[in-house]
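Archive entry: two folds, one per protein. Generate the first.
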Amino acid sequence: MTGSPVTAAPPGTAPPRTAVVLRLLAGRGAFRLSVQLMGLVLIAAWGARDYGRFANALGLVTWLNFVPGAAEKSALKALPRLRLTRDAVAGLAVRFAAVPVLVVLVAMAGALVAAPRSDAALYLTAAAWSISGGLLMTVSGLHRVRGKSTLDALAFTAGSVVVGVVTCVTWVVRWPPGVHLAMLLGGLLVILGASAALLPRPWLRGGGLPGHRLLPAFGRSTVLLGLTEVLDVLSTSVVFGVLALAGRTTESGPFYLALLVSSAFCSLLFYQLRLHQPTASWRMRGTGAAAGRARAGGLLKLVERGGIAFAVLLAAGLALPSTRVLLTTGDSYVVLGVLVLVETALYATGLYASFLIENTTSKVLTLTSGAAVVSLAATAVAAALLVPPLGPVGGFAALVFALAVKAAVLRRLIRRH
């Protein structure tokens, strides 16, 4: 490293210790496990019809969970590279994450007052639960970057208790889906308020000239970094929408349960990447960016080839009468299990590749967000063709095809760049 100045890494950029990672994963893992068990309990308590409405409502708004998280992602990338404007950027992250949550909560309150038993109230309550969970993730991420990782673990452990208690009460008294979601949301908001109150006062107050000067740059980074994840999750919401339009809402339940397995694993991977994002952001500056992009290109090629192999196998399966029946019934959990494994492997590989690319330079963010737009369009087209005849199987097939398309487009864009 002769000829290069030695720059000390700022606080918060060292890789987290193993004990800290295990504690954090225990908190998030307990929350994910409670949500998984909630699904199994509720389908037994409500039956396929009510659970289908509940699953479809959550499935359509899951993408909102990632809207506040865009600010966390932008902050975790920027804060390790900042010193004098660190508090101003953190304050911007808090405000960027909180504003959409307040908008959804106001809309939900209006629907509950006007028509508390309507589908609109149910869907807006699901939306509030989803986006509030995203805000809790963002607040927890800001606690981690200031060295208070225990607050993250405590918040999500408390969240798992809320989910468990509310689910048990619903099992006993048979609360309908709308009431169940409202109780979940109430408990989550209490945890969120307590966690946000522990942030540093300068971060909560915001305002000031430095924040206003940084607003355009931080806003652009937040939108572009968050857009990729929002559009990726919106792809699954498109599948739920097509299931509803095709008159197969009842099958949203099996699709949602199968998707929970994939989302549980990918959310833990996603969380691991967030834990290491300050370190990655610090290391992939300057010459480190080229190595990161080269490694990402190899991973994207794997996703692309995996999607092509899947398409060939699915076409062969549909061509054979014996397997065609199994694929078109849409109620085989063995088939859904295989599809979950394929979709999870490809999604996780593509997620890590995008992580490497996004933490190089800000110039490539338009490329990752552009590829995500193409992926969403590919999901919509594939879902419209495959979901009506294949149900949940077609939904997973559409997601896999879209992942392959996204990998192919992003790899070529990065290579040109």
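Generate the second and append.
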Amino acid sequence: MLFRRVLSLVFALGLALTSAGAVLARETAPHLTLLVSMDGFRADYLDRGVTPNLKVLADDGARGSMRPSFPSLTYPNHYTLVTGKRPDRNGVVGNEMEDVVIGGPKFVMNGPTANDPRWWNQAKPFWVSAEQQGKKSAAMFWPGSETAIDGVRPSHWMKYQHDLPYDARIDQVLAWVDSADGPPLAFATLYFDAADTEGHHYGPDSPELTAALVELDRCIGRLVEGLKARGRFETTDLIIVADHGMAPLPAAHRVVLDDLIDVSKIHLVAKGAVTSFSPLPGQAKAVEAAFLKSAPPHMTCWKKGRIPARFHYGRNRRVPAIVCLSETGWYTTTLEARKKPGKWDGKDGGAHGFDPYDVRMRAVFVAHGPSFRPGVVLPVFDNVDVYPLLAKVTGVKPEKGDGSLKVIGQALR
């Protein structure tokens, strides 16, 4: 009897020591904040039943729907997520834009001018603040990460390679986590584009989009297993986001700008869901008659100073004189562009860039880790709120921005 009692006490002591050791490991292992972007992953994709790894993280952490900033495009919203400032304040006002101060060729997403730091210096991204405060950062593909901003780059970064396999991206991030070169990694980004690419090509309700969701979920599983194998999962705050959602775009839903005006009278900067341009000298009356005093089909147009306040857009010098927002599911084009059809033209597909208040533009948000309470479902919030959350969980003093922890902070322990 005495032997059994002693054995029971020894077993209980062993369990206590094991538990204490696990707690000590969590407390001594370095904390990591890992921000993962799944471009074009609409908020409701999470409920389609094909992403079990993401569901486990969401159920054991927090989830919500994020409202993108205007315009609901890739570059503006990726930079909003890491600066906490809306596009009109962070300077990345579109995937294509011009600046009278910079001059020269216009900025085009993934184009040769995109890494000129002057395009990015109106706001400081999170990795720059982290580095300046002694916290090591890494960026596996994120708009702005390929150039020195405020004279600073992430400690680790890579030039964007669209064809780099997803497993290689994950393994590189894990290798950066493993690195013993200098202080431990405190913040890192990771980027996947499958949901956006297949959503554009085939639409948000296509089998091809479903296959993309399955692949992305597999990648999340690989990432989690990699962190667990290194003993880092328990000390990693994993924040999974998207830049925007996706809406169906029928092939016939095109407004040809040449049908509305002689396009030689305007300086066109961007077309698509958001069309932006300025009248050429002497053409203001004709342009205003076509776009402001009449009702152009399937779009609403404003002078830049009269864009509705809810869009928080129109004061930046990079916003052209007139901005038109297409009705969800419609795009603008030109006769010249139709002579050179793009990869998504001529067939039904999908698009974004539309009104951020449209539910189809909402982006996914999942947060899991030691900083987050389990089982939290957040109300809809603006994506500018992600930045103060990053600052809170990483211990970085934030720049003053447009977001707050009022809603998203409900996810925190």
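Annotation attached to the second fold: Residues 29-247+356-411 form a domain with the Alkaline Phosphatase, subunit A fold (CATH 3.40.720.10). The chain has two domains: 29-247+356-411, 251-347.
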